[in-house]
């Protein structure tokens, strides 16, 4: 009976390893849309008690191996954001990039993406503005 239990454990472990390998292969980034989807899976905005919701855009480039090339650059932040809000969101963006890199590019996508800038938008505000409020001014970083 103990031998049968060990076989079941070994079979379960092999199945789990096979599934994680298959999931990793499925996670290959092969299109531009896949790049955006992949990076957004790592996005964790600051909790509301630390910063008010805002939208932020970062421009980042990658090398063929999927590592960040150069320095990411914040190009847009919501105009109504306070200095604390901006700081908290900038930290969250950089943490998301750290969690998601290196990007698992396919060979074809690695060649296409290498050195090209990607503008990644992280939206955390309501996208439909209130009809009674005046339009907000965008603030460029």
TrEMBL record:
The keyword Signal applies. Residues 1-23 form the signal peptide. InterPro entries: UCP034077. Keywords: Signal. Residues 130-141 have a biased composition (Polar residues). It comes from the Bacteria. Residues 122-141 are annotated as: Disordered. This is TonB C-terminal domain-containing protein. It comes from Bradyrhizobium frederickii. The lineage of its organism: Bacteria, Pseudomonadati, Pseudomonadota, Alphaproteobacteria, Hyphomicrobiales.
